[in-house]
């Protein structure tokens, strides 16, 4: 009986050790499960962060492309405006040549049709008075050189003025 009793006690002891080992295993599984849950949560947060960064990078790329397109359009508009400014300058000079009968002084540095402001006398257009009313002018008489307008602008001037543009030999200008 002693041996049976010893064997029973040994069995109870082994069962207690197994119980403690199983409890440690259950605690270990709980820790592993908790860590797995934390890893899963962190992975989801990381995925969300990477997704947000990706969206922000796409928005930056879109903004960069849009800015590039706007800059290109601005450049094209600027080039077109420069061409139109040159054309308008030529039309204005041609119109001044037709009205004044010679080339009016225009600053090459200034915008079209802006006269140089060098002195008061240079800014006065000298137009002779009709023969019946001779007026004394304080400005010295200027030599008028008649230039024909460029043929490409005659049609433009005609459409602006609405009538045929007279040339330098027009008899209506004989009295002037």
- In terms of structural class, how would the helical and strand content be classed? mainly alpha
- How much is the radius of gyration in Å? 49 Å
Give the overall form: rod-shaped
Tally the helices. 2
In percent, how helical is the residue content? 55-70%
Contiguous runs where pLDDT drops below 50 for at least 5 residues = 105-147
Beta-strand residue percentage: under 5%
Biggest sheet architecture = none
Task: List SSEs in N-to-C order.
Answer: HH
- Multimeric status of the protein: single chain
Number of strand segments: 0
Distance between the termini: 155 Å
The averaged pLDDT comes out at 75
If you had to describe this structure to a student in words, what would you say it looks like?
The protein has a domain at 1-34. The chain is mainly α and 176 residues long. It has helices at 2-100, 151-161. The model is unreliable at 105-147 (pLDDT under 50). It has 2 helices and no strands. The chain is rod-shaped.
